[in-house]
Amino acid sequence: MIKPLRKALCAWGALTCAIALAPSRATSAGRPGDVGSSLQADGAWHPFRPKTDPARPDPPPAQSPNQGSTIRVQTNLVSILASVIDDKGKPVADLPESAFQLFEEGVPQKIERFEAETNRPVDLALMIDSSASTYKDLKFELEASAHFIRQVVRPGDSLCVFEVSEQVTQIGDFSDDVPRLQNAVRKIGAGTGTSIYDAVVLGSNQLRRRPAGRRRAIVFVTDAGETTSGSKFEDARRAAIASDELIYTIVIRPIKNENGRNTGGEHALNTITDSTGGNMFILDDLGQIESMFDEIDRELRTQYLLGYYPQPTPPPDSDRHVQVKVNGNYTLSYRKEYFTARQ
Q: Which fold has domain 73-118+303-343?
């Protein structure tokens, strides 16, 4: 009885060992019962390591809610050009930064950038009023303007001529070709009305298209008798401020008595000129025009740049008011307003 039983147990053990040593039939698709397991390069099974499918790349690692979502607030540098005039009407150069104080809406601002602008290139829109009221002196006016072009345009600068009457006509593109610009001025003929507001809007828009980092200015020779503009005063004022330009106006007064002339355009130009930081000259004798052009040229070459980042940060799409002060008995001309960007 014992021998048959011993033989049966040995046969059962052999069968068990054969089953244990038989090769596996599972593939890299996984083994039954091993959820999420796969066959790795080393031939071993590693549970919970899913196989990589090249057609479906792994998703990026999860980020915390605050990761990669930094909020940035950008405040643009505000640049103010300032002209300083002494008690004799002459530009003052070489003042130190410490001579200036700067305010926005009454709040002191830190000057982050300070430099003299003498050598910075300038883009000029020269506007010549050719309305009927200026006809008598138009030829002399044009020759004086041609002389101004030769005087003011220097290497790196550009100038464009605009004829202003019942319509505003841009004569050519911005250029530093002095003879061509002078010829453009001399071809201006007599018109009828005067579209002052349209001229400021057109000139300002053209200057805004000029490259950044340059100065911009309108020099306007006119009798200031606004008669035919489609634009309004506020259109012109906002366009001039938005373009970050200076406006210099030479007002020809054919009639000295205010009761005998249209003064609406003159007062409007005075307001716009003051807001942009330029200057207005009243011409009672046509012989003064060349000296006025000379003074404009000197002011353009002796300006200061004051740059600051407004604090507190102003709201978008707002009209901001700036005040600049300087130590000493001087007169200041500078841009007194700017508009913040829309959101």
A: Immunoglobulin-like (2.60.40)
